[in-house]
Amino acid sequence: MNNTLVEHDVLARTLGEAMARGAEFAEVFVEDRTTSSAMLDQRRVEQLSSGHDRGAGIRVLVGDTTGFAHTADLTESGLKAAARAAAAVARGGGGGVREIALGALRDNPSHATILPGDVDKARKIELMNRADDAARSEGSSITQVQVALGDSTRQFIVANSDGLFAGDHQVRTRFNVSCIAKGDTGMQTGYRPIAGTRGFELLSADAVADAARGAARQAITKLDARPAPSGDLPVVLAGGSGGILFHEACGHGLEADAILKQASVYAGKVGQLVASPLVTLVDDGTVEGEWGYLAIDDEGRPGARNVLIENGVLTEYMWDYLRSRKEGRVSSGNGRRQSYQHLPMVRMTNTYLLEGDSDADEIVAQTPYGVYVAQLGGGQVNTATGDFVFGMTAAFMIEDGKITAPLRDCNLIGNGPDVLQRVDAVASDFSMTPGTCGKNGQSVPVGTGQATMRLTGVTIGGAAA
Amino acid sequence: MSQLLEHAQRILESARGDEEIEVYVASGVDTEVQSYQGEVEELTTATSNGFGIRILNDGAGGARVGTAWAGSLDDEAIVNALREARDNATFATEDEFVAFARPDGVGAVSLTLSDDAVASTPLEEKIAMAIELERLVRGGDTRIRQVDSANYSDYVAEAAIASTTGIRASYARTGAYVSVEAIANDGGDDQTGWGLSAGRAPHELDVEKAAADAIRRATRMLGAVKPKSFKCTAVFDPRTAATLFSIIGGALSGEAVVRGRSFFANRVGEMVATPSFTLLDDPTDARHFGASVYDGEGLACRRNVLIEKGQLRGFVYDTVSARRAGTASTGSAVRGGIAGSPSAGCRALQLAPGHVDQAEILRRVGNGVFVESLIGVHSGVNPVSGDFSVGVTGLMIRDGQLAEPVREITVASTLQRMLLDVVQVGNDLEWLPGAAAGQSVAIDNIAVSGT
């Protein structure tokens, strides 16, 4: 596939127009995205939808001011009009249209082997039905099964006044199963996602059936759940979705936009011990196939593996172009945006804790009393105070070193710098989970990962007295 | 007739004899200004338009619908979308309840929801409001250490819906907002507070109030501690109460009910809340920021009483969920822009006001916790089971007065129980952006988790 959204010379002239009023930097981001989605609800195939969006976002920097405009009109006149709108923040004379020299496009292919457009819709429906069957085979208490399948093919090019000219093709596929089980105590939910920066090869018949059975078992198990306790208890997080803890507890606080505004509890702490020595945290856009994978970020910078915390010591923040420019350094490949209609900002990619050498079963066995969290469902943080929450969607009591009664859903709450000190065991059963990260109204796909680990104490927000 | 409606009707002309078509066309103009350290940090100006098409085929076992959308209005995009939607429809399951809305005789109310001042106000004035907002917060209290974003934003949105089943609807809406987050510090930990003012046009905004709100909220959290876990009565302020009402509104969607995803299913007529609790969804009240003349399928919006004096009266429905439930649409289809299919939802919730103000509620409650901000609503509330557990910052209530600030706690119960445990409803109704207005409410039997 070629990346010919807008011709080289047109981009160069658009950048020249954007720089005409005295800007210091200009960037054109052109994106074309095709999506499809379908839902199976109670065995009915519905909401089959196809979408297409194409346009350009133009950014102009003048001093500490960013001007931004976007347009769906990709003709030269449409792009130049958007360039002038973005450049309106530059009030100086400027000296007229500038010549911008762009090199040859450095394009990146998608690694998908089966492209979404090549997949028969009947095959997609067959997979959704298979998941439905698998979920219902877990027990008659499963009363509702909903399966959602979606894919997107996103190609973009980004050109800027420094001469950068790069492109990427990103194919993403996701498959979610959610189940409801009904019992004497009411209804309970179970949920499993499969998602990757991959084509349809991501979805084997076995993988979707496994996910469906997992979602069903989770809902059925929770029918016997009792209210979660309230107060401070040891917590063992199962490998995989527990990575959301680090995404919230420190990931957002290590994003350079919050750092430069002194709006993060981690500002000014590079080189300091901020976590237990067991914590080595990495943000890594290069994990091919993962949900947060990117060959280049949305500013044209190659994705990178960045060690944020090493053996408990804060080593580095995450950077985009704008914030690294202010600090006279280079971007760490974390400049991302939801679409051409959004400004890029510092975002995580795949954020994970390196595994340790403990044994997962041993960690549970050595916990006399606490909570075992098998799945986390999301979270939120206030980076300025460090207070964060994350929700548990599958959890159990640990009593005498054994996993016992299931617990109803609730949030856990903690303070980032405090919780990071409380990691006292990390196992070697590493795995990752896909998620959607929201920040300032923009959503981007991210991965989180970790091995089974224990926190000596965290506040469980249950309803039990 | 609006230009968008003409456009939508032109697309309808492509309908074949054996199909129905529904077209939704939308356009918008957005402006966003962010001030930082007295300068414009970001300025975004944008126009956008697009459409969503649904095509319906009737078969022996019912109808099948396929959908397609595009973020432009050019002819090629329309031709492609028609083709895709038709293809999608062939893969859907025939369903006797699937149908497009048809005019139901309910007349649309006349509401003024747009103000030309959004478009006519010079950009310089909008920029000045964001800068003034930041200046007021920074200068308003010596303990304000940082303002990490002070924003002005506005929009002009237009939409039209037309269908071969006789729907013709178009509407325009404008909105303007200022919002600011302040960070306060007096030597200990940082605390944050968020202030907001919303209107339909820039001249309706109260920049001073937004600034004062952010300062007050940030500074009164200074010195906050994490208390021990306890059970108590919680008083939600209008903002956090509005979030709570939105969650309850989600479970009152006919869509959630017919899909077996609401704890209110099969309970119409039952007492589900305390007798002082009357909740309605009324998009015809122009004061509500969720007000609308038409719903997402082009039917007239109407006033729907959902819970009356504690008794569950009914749900909000769009066409399909209503047919599945054996009833008629309540004019409550909502759609998430051009890419979204209509579904049933509340858009303008309000709780019938009580007779007491917030100070009187605090006095009557005596001791408890005052909830000023929520965190983790999406991760801690399960709208199917009703489990509720959210992170909170706020203040203790002691002897009927606000006392010391508390942080890093959760409040938990179940939504079912919370509705029955509402012990006070305030008269301090506040119109807020979003699907729910808010006022202070006191709810009993809340588990507070701390140390």
Give the helices and strands, then pairings.
The complex is a heterodimer of chains A (465) and B (451).
Chain A (H helix, E strand, L loop, with lengths): L7 H11 L6 E17 L2 E19 L2 E7 L4 H12 L18 E3 L12 H16 L5 E19 L4 E19 L2 E11 L8 H18 L7 E8 L6 H8 L4 H5 L20 E4 L20 E6 L2 E2 L6 H6 L8 E2 L8 E2 L3 E4 L6 H6 L3 E13 L5 E13 L2 E6 L2 E6 H6 L1 E4 L4 E9 L2 E9 L2 E9 L4
Parallel strand pairs in A: 4-6, 8-15, 14-21
Antiparallel strand pairs in A: 1-2, 1-5, 2-3, 5-6, 6-7, 8-22, 9-10, 9-14, 10-11, 12-13, 15-16, 16-17, 16-18, 18-22, 19-22, 20-21
Helix pairs in contact in A: 1-2, 3-4
Chain B lengths: L2 H10 L6 E18 L2 E21 L2 E9 L4 H17 L25 H4 L2 H18 L3 E20 L4 E17 L6 E9 L7 H13 L10 E7 L1 H14 L2 H5 L20 E3 L22 E5 L2 E2 L6 H7 L7 E2 L8 E2 L4 E3 L6 H8 L2 E8 L1 H4 L6 E12 L2 E14 H6 L1 E4 L15 E9 L2
Parallel strand pairs in B: 7-14
Antiparallel strand pairs in B: 1-2, 1-4, 2-3, 4-5, 5-6, 7-18, 8-9, 8-13, 9-10, 11-12, 14-15, 15-16, 16-18, 17-18
Helix pairs in contact in B: 4-5
